Amino acid sequence: MDEYKLSLPAHIAFSQSTTTKITHNLSNSCAQSMTVNELCSLAEKSIGDIDLSYAPLLGDIELRKAIVSYHNQINHADFDLEHNNVLTFCGAQEALSAIYKSLLTRDDEVVVFTPCYPSLTSMVKASGAMVKCLELRAENNWQIDFNQLEYVVNDKTKMIVINSPHNPTGSIVDSQTADKILALAKKYQCYLLADDVSQATNYQKLALSHNYLSYEKSIVVSVMAKSFGLAGLRIGWVITKNALLLKELLAIKSYGSICCSAIDEQLSLLALNNSEKIFKRNNDIIQQNIEHFQLFIDNNEDYFSWCPPQAGVLAVVELLMEQSVVDWAKTLAEKSGLLILPCSLFGLSGNYFRLGLGQKDFLQGLRSLEKSLRQPLVYK
Predict the structure, then answer these.
(1) Exposed, middle or buried by CB within 10 Å (0-12, 13-18, 19+), for 44?
(2) Which of 55, 69, 162, 182 is the residue whose CA sits 20 to 30 A from 173?
(3) DSSP readout, 204-264?
(4) Separation CA 310–CA 206 (nearest Å)
(5) What are phi and psi of 86, to 5 degrees?
(6) How far apart are CA 70 and CA 86, in angstroms?
């Protein structure tokens, strides 16, 4: 097998390619952010007394305890985990990279549902492993087909990768399906990697809890971005019962970031301790934006169609124009300062783009988009 070299992820390269200042990012994958003062005010606490020495390599103990509580609470379970089952990273990307480096070797097989966040497949290829992509389809409302998964997984499967709520489609893996996926992973004794970065974005209060963390070979990744909206806090984490894996991940981390920012970890602890307030605010914003976009679709049905998301911050929208979505998106960025990411950047063919529903300025961005539709020089 030829050596696979990593390059700038396609969606990041596309975002960086525009020469015009972006005024609205309509593909933003995060919920609404907040300032340091706003976050501290939730706990009536100052960060002025944080010690600016190295943070613990494993992560702050109180933060890791809060992470365990968070996963128990959101999954309505007690997984018999403690802080030593958690390792912090500088974002979810670093965590995912470390997992792949630790577990995958040449000729391993990894099952990933596509479209997906590009790194979930590119990092598999970089390891020399084989990616088996299972396509989510519009005609199935972007839902996982468990029968398809069951057909593909076999004795050679090293890892199943699950992302719910899904980036970019907004589909979900409900609790019943999660149980079936877990049973399948146990049957073949393969690893189960759950990308749960948007799990708390559950504005319809669907059954999104799972029992993955009861399984020794399950690995759950989450982050302060996405549901929390706190992407400026570069804190992600891995939680698992697999002590040997955590030891290997720590070794990999020690050759990279070594440890996370002490300030970021303490602010993340504040966020976790006040997560219900943060999630309520962010989910209210997303629900309002879904309503705004449905009205927008109703008024512009000749241009767009969509399947509203079930959960999460994102959705997929089909562009009904003859113009390719890539050309259209480039024109939007250059002429209108609107960033829209074509779904081809995430492995989805067709005239689709990713829509981010988490921002307070979403309606202003929609108005700018609607205005651009009435400019014939933009759409030839």
Answers:
(1) exposed
(2) 69
(3) T-------GGGSTTEEEEEESSTTS--TTS--EEEE-S-HHHHHHHHHHHHTTTSS--HHH
(4) 8
(5) -125, 140
(6) 12
Cα(369)–Cα(351) distance, integer angstroms: 17
Non-local (6+) Cβ contacts of 55 within 8 A are: 259, 260, 261, 262, 265
Q: What is the pLDDT of residue 1?
A: 45
**What are the residues whose beta carbons fall under 8 Å from the beta carbon of 317, sequence distance 6 or more?**
304, 305, 306, 352, 353, 354, 355
Instruction: Enter the tokens of residue 31.
Output: 């919920």
Q: How many CB atoms lie within 10 A of CB 315?
A: 24
| pLDDT above 70 coverage of the chain, percent | 97
Amino acid 376: pLDDT:
53
Q: What is the Cα 97 distance to its own chain's centre?
A: 14
CA distance 88 to 91: 8
pLDDT tens for each residue of 319-356? 999 899 999 999 999 999 999 999 999 999 999 999 99
Tell me the whole-structure pTM to 2 decimals.
0.94
Task: Give whole-number Cα distances, 298 to 98, 284, 314, 373, in Å.
Answer: 44, 21, 19, 14
**CA distances, 283 to each of 69, 141, 228, 367 (Å):** 21, 22, 10, 22
Whether 5 has a pLDDT exceeding 80, the answer reads no
β-strand pairing of 157-163 with 109-114: parallel
The tokens describing 23, both together, are 């005024």
Tokens at 332, concatenated:
């939007």
Q: 3: pLDDT confidence band, cut at 50, 70 and 90?
A: low
Token digits of residue 122: 């590119």
Of 358, 371, 374, the C-alpha closest to 25 is 358
Question: CB–CB of 24/148 below 8 Å?
Answer: no
Q: Give the whole-angstrom CA distance, residue 25 versus residue 340.
A: 7
Give me the sign of the Cα torsion angle 165, 171, 174, 180.
Answer: negative
Neighbours of 369 (CB within 10 A): 19
Contact predicate 250/87, CB 8 Å: yes
The length of the chain is 380
175 token code pair: 């609790």
Question: Would you state the structure tokens that stand for residue 258, as one six-digit string?
Answer: 């070594």
Residue 185, amino acid:
A
| Token pair recorded at residue 99 | 């997992």
